[in-house]
Structure formats: structure tokens, C-alpha cells
Amino acid sequence: MTDIVVVDLPDAVVRQIGARTGRIPHRARAGDLGTAIDDATLVVVGVPDGGVTLAQAVHDVAPEVAVVLVAGDVAEGNEVRAMLTVTPGIGRHATCVVLQEPDTLDRIADEVERAQLRLQHRRTLERVRDDISAFEGAAPETLSVYLGQLFEHAPVGILLADPDGVVRAANPCSGEVLGWKPRHAIGTSLTDMFSGEAADVASGLLRASVRAGEPNEATITRTGPDGTTQHLEVTVAPVDPDHWDLGVFVLLRDESERIQALEAAQRARQTAEADAERYAELAWTLQESLLPPDLPAIEGIHLGTRYHPAGDGSEIGGDFYDIFQVADGEWFAVVGDVCGKGAGAARLTALSRYSLRAATVRTKHLATNLHDLNTALNRQYDLDRERGQHRFATATAIRFETDGDGVTVRAGSGGHPSPLVVRADGNVEEVACRGPLLGVFAEATFTTGEARLAPGDVLVLYTDGVTEARRGREEYGEDRLRDLLSSCAGRPADDVAGAVEEAVLTFQSGVARDDIAVLAIGPEGRAS
After folding, report:
1. pLDDT single digits (tens) 156-178
2. Structure pTM?
3. Which architecture does CATH list for 290-523?
4. Domain ranges of the chain
């Protein structure tokens, strides 16, 4: 029998699912899904190629087959979950997991186990229906024998008690559940089998069932046969709702393992949430330490910055910015992006910031500043490579000074988007500057560009979390950014930076898939 069918998933993910679940997933194409799910209990679908549509198709054919949609990141997962709630034809056994989350494989394995239990339940019901159908029209004595066998071999404890709760019959499984010999239960009051609060609950179930003529159930906690805590699911149902004097059936099921597993899962979840909260707080504290605490006050200049971490901000990101004075009337600013996340990215971010600060002391030449940064990162790249890591960085740096009539800017880039100048009339221009990735090549050449900013103009530096923001397969892109910046013409730098952040977040439904960093500068004064 095929347990798991996978569609549109990378080989590495399929192998991980197989290793975690102990089952060999069966690959299928979307067009062959109808025949592939004949024997399936779970279908795992990659989201990019119409995953929700495939889930709908699966449930059209087999409503009881569970479907797990695998999203690439948190934002995509949020979109898919929202779609599941409004898509017609989606069964109740459809869920979405995010590939980058640490518990994804565990959740898929849990779905496999639940799907197997549902399958076993359906097959048990089918067998019972078949058995009952076989006895239609049978003689009463035949039915009596059959019901007697069912009573003796039922996998749950069954007691038959009179309306006062005195047990008149007990099957073998009831003895296993209660830790009594079945014959010792006969003649014993139902409430005497328990003590304290448990006895009160049992008595209440009995009264309610006899009075209302309908089943009542509750979970009773007691000391089990082995001396440990036992969680016993007790159902009391009238033998005949119209004749309460015939007594009641009492069904007993030991739910200890399930409830203990749920409690353990709840404790683990609470611990994980607490750990995640502590880690997120630590991550944000460390992230803040890698950014300037306050923007400097520069005479004749207005500034604006925005930083927004990816996802929920629980990971230390690689985007950074810095701005500091290098000479009387001259300032240096940089916006950069370090490959990866976590402590390694934080280390490289700190190295980048302080290497640039040191480099600007030695020389005023921007290309040389970037070359010195590249040298420092290249040394670190060699060390990281020995540890099996491959980290690099990109950055755009500027040196600027004001002369009272405007601002002169020199810009250089190492594998990073070039700065954009928003003119007061709405035109958007690129400051042409080029250079390779930082920390990869020992020898690198950097070409700088220059721009003059008049009052009303604003220069914008940004990371690729802006232009490469995604909504499904669609990127925000540089054209949208240019159109947005053009609409911000004449506004202060801080307004421009805020508008960029807001637009990119809105494009991604409020959840950033990558870190976003924006730095805007402009000369004070009115446009002429």
C-alpha cells in the first residue's frame, strides 16, 4: 500500500520526509494524481505549482485523504493558509507547513500518523458494517451468539449495570482497564469502583443518562492498576432510551497514553514558545547592537532610515546600515547585506561595519575603502570555508559633504544595488557604480560614481529585500521602486524611507520574506 504521495517537491525534501516517517514516498505528477492516490493516506504537495488547486483536486476524488501543502517561507505559508479557508472543495484534512520552520518534518510525520489512524478507523467501520449486514434477517439465537462474542472480545471495557448502577455483567477488557477480575465487578456499585471526585463524576454520569435517556461521557482521573495516574474515558448510555429500567451500558477506555502525550506535547510547545521568545528577544537585541543607536544630526542634511527583519524577527538578519563622520563637513554612509542569518551573519556584519570605519580613517578614496573591506572579508571567507561555511557580503557606500547649496555624493558598490536619486521634479536616476561581491575575490576593482543633490532631491540606498520582495512568483522589482520613489518627489528623506518600507511590506501582505534596510539622505531647503 502507498502511504505518502509527493508532488513537486525537491529530492532532498522527499528524502527527509522518508527518513522522518520511515516510509518511502511515491513521486507523482499533477496529471497522474487521480490514479496515484488510490492507495494513498497522505499527499504532500509543493506550493509553487498550484498546490491549493491540487489539494482541491485530491479532495474531489478522495475527501478523506490528508493533504499537506509545503510552503517555501512564512509569508507564502500565510498566503496558502488564507487560501485554504476560502477555497471550495477543500476537505477538513488539509494543512500547510513552512519548509524553513524547524518542526516541519515532525508535523508531516504527525499528519502521516493521523492519516493512518483515520484509515484504520474507516476500515474498522467497514468491517463492522459488513458484519452487521451479514446478520440481517438472521435468527434471534444467531444474533445472540454474535452479540455475546462481541461483548467478550470487544477492545473496550463494557459493563452492564442496572439503573442504580449495580454491575450485572462485565467483559474481560473491563477487568484489564480497571485492574479488577470481571467477576469481582459483578454486584459492585459503579460508584464504588472509584473514589473521591472520580466517584462523584461516575454517579453524575449515571443519573444524567437514566434521567435523559441519552449517552453521557467524561474523563475520570484515578489511580490505575499499576499505581500510576490513569485517565479513563467513561461513557454511560441507556440500553434502551425508551425503557430506562433496563439499565445502562458503561464503556471504559484507557486514554492515559494519549492524554499524557498531549500533555507532554503541550509542555514541549510551551517550552519551545518560551525559548523562541527568549531567542527572538536576544536576536533583536543583538540586531540592534549592529545598527546605529541614533542617527546623527548633520547640519544642512535630513536623514531617514528603516530596518525591518524578515518573518517575525526571531532570526538575526544580515542587512545593516551605518553613518558616521569622517572629516569636518564630510560623512560616510553604507547599506549592506551579509549572506545568511544567525550568529555567523552577525559576526560578518560587525566585521564589515568596523572594517569600514577603520578604512575611512586611512584614506578618503572610496574605492580604496571598499577594497580594504573586501580584503578583511576575504580573510574571514577563507576561515569560514575551512569550517564548511561560505559567507560573503554586498554593500553600497557613499561619502558626502554639504556646501550650503546642496550635497556632493560619491558612491561605490560591492555587488549591491546602486543608489537612486529622486529629483525634486520626480525623475529617478541611478548613480552608476560597480564592483564585485565582497569577501569572495582576493583582487577586486571598484568603480565609483558621483551625484549632486539640490534641495528637494533625495538619495536612497536599499538592500535587495526591497526589490526582491515576492508575492507568489511576482517580484516587487526595480520598476515598482522607481515609480514609488517618483511619487515621493519633494518629500523629506524620512518620509521617503518610510514609504519604501510600507510599500514593500504591503506587497508581501505584511510579512517580509527578507530583511529590509533603507537609508535616505537629502539637503535641507526648498527646491528651486
Report:
1. 888 888 888 888 888 888 888 88
2. 0.51
3. 4-Layer Sandwich (3.60)
4. 4-130, 147-254, 290-523
